[in-house]
């Protein structure tokens, strides 16, 4: 039993942590489309970044944000969402 004790404790810790912590549903933007982005807008703060960026160059997949701005692709919307602390999010596929 002694050699199984660390494994048992690890398993018990894993069950307690995942059972006690509220799990956040994972959302992929957009739900349909060629490229989908899992945007960590609640965990990453890019409010200090004032520049423009295109993390998916050459990809045109219009996507509408909750601020009713059409973004060129989901990657750009994700960056804007992180810059706004999650205030700007996915509204719908296509142009606004």
Automatic annotation (TrEMBL):
It comes from the Eukaryota. Residues 33-96 form the Kazal-like domain. Its main location: secreted. InterPro entries: Kazal-type_SerProtInhib, Kazal_dom, Kazal_dom_sf. It is found in: Secreted. GO terms for cellular component: extracellular region. PROSITE patterns: KAZAL_1, KAZAL_2. Pfam families: Kazal_1 (PF00050). Keywords: Disulfide bond, Protease inhibitor, Secreted, Serine protease inhibitor, Signal. GO terms for molecular function: serine-type endopeptidase inhibitor activity. Residues 1-22 form the signal peptide. This is Serine protease inhibitor Kazal-type 14. It comes from Puma concolor.
């Amino acid at each position: 039993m002694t050699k199984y004790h660390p494994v048992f404790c690890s398993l018990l810790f894993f069950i307690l942590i995942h059972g006690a912590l509220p799990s956040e549903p994972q959302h992929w933007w957009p739900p349909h489309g060629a490229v989908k982005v899992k945007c960590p807008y609640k965990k990453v703060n890019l409010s200090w970044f004032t520049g423009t960026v295109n993390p998916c160059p050459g990809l045109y997949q219009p996507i509408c944000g909750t601020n009713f701005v059409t973004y060129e692709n989901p990657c750009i919307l994700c960056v804007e969402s992180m810059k706004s602390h999650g205030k700007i999010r996915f509204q719908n596929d296509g142009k606004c």
